[in-house]
């Protein structure tokens, strides 16, 4: 199975230095009807007293006329320490646009980035997002260094 050809991968947010501010990407991701989206927030160092997490919000039109509002139960705490991942899977969201929001309060937390993977799309193959600058499918072959 070629997962990269059956999903859309989108870099939603690049790295953000240590801080205590909320991080909101400029736009949400469009999730076609019947599809799903997986968000992966990658954290760097998170201070022991930091209260940080990832929350999803939804809109009918990427926040143009229908403001983004929180999807109930989506707030997930970030790991404290030297870094880690916060993953939220959102199958068939209530509205077609979904926006990941990282909350950082009390003490510093570093955000290394947010990745969105849209899957179960009826459009096949999905178009590559402009944030994907390289992709390669490795076919079964000889191990590295073999003759």
Describe the structure.
The structure is a single chain. This protein is an all-beta fold and 147 residues long. The chain has one domain: icosahedral virus (Jelly Rolls), CATH 2.60.120. It has one helix at 3-6, and strands spanning 8-13, 16-19, 29-30, 36-46, 51-59, 69-70, 76-77, 84-91, 97-105, 109-119. Strands 1, 2, 4, 8 and 10 form a five-stranded antiparallel beta sheet that branches. Strands 3, 5, 6, 7 and 9 form a five-stranded antiparallel beta sheet that branches. It is globular and about 45 Å long.
Helix content: under 10%
Which CATH class applies here? Mainly Beta
- Within CATH, the superfamily carries the name icosahedral virus
Order of helices and strands: HEEEEEEEEEE
Shape: globular
The helix/strand class is mainly beta
The span between the termini is 27 Å
Largest sheet, if any?
Answer: 5 strands, antiparallel
Tell me what portion of residues adopts beta-strand conformation: 35-45%
Examine the secondary-structure arrangement and name the CATH architecture: Sandwich
Query: What does the average pLDDT come to?
Result: 87
CATH fold-level topology: Jelly Rolls
